[in-house]
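ARCHIVE CARD
Drawer: 12
Card no.: 0347
Subject: one protein chain, sequence and derived structure
Cross-reference: see card 0346
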Amino acid sequence: MGMVNVDPPKAGDALVNLDEKVFPDHQAREGDRALVMMHTVPFEGSVGLVNMLTTTRIARKGFDTSFVLYGPGVLMGAAGRGFPKVGDEAFPGNLAFNNQMQTILDEGSKIYACRFAMAGLYGMRESDLMAGIKPFHPLDVLDVLIDHWRDGALTIATWTV
């Protein structure tokens, strides 16, 4: 059998059908809320960044959006990231979490971080969080879910270890 000669893909090629959208482009209705719960270790997989991008997209559709960091997710909100100095990007993507979280805040969504996970698990202080992230009591992990459930909110909950 001979080798199959197929031109390799090149910059600008579309590898899939980009014109067909299967579902409608839903937008929030008046009063719609959304909640994204993040329990994941930053940089250990794509789920943290993907959910931040999803949170940004949900907010841009008009939802009153909250992003909740609990368990190892609180590490996503660390203000002191960078190397060799805070804010220096040691490698491409090193500050992707901080940059996307800042976009979420700048565009009007709320970000919360669990005080138990911060202090009890990781030795973080509230001052270690990025400006704009609101620390909350660990009992609020359940109550934020109930609060949004009662409003019929769109809820995305991601749990990884």
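Annotation on reverse: The helical segments are 47-60, 96-106, 115-122, 140-150. The radius of gyration is 19 Å.
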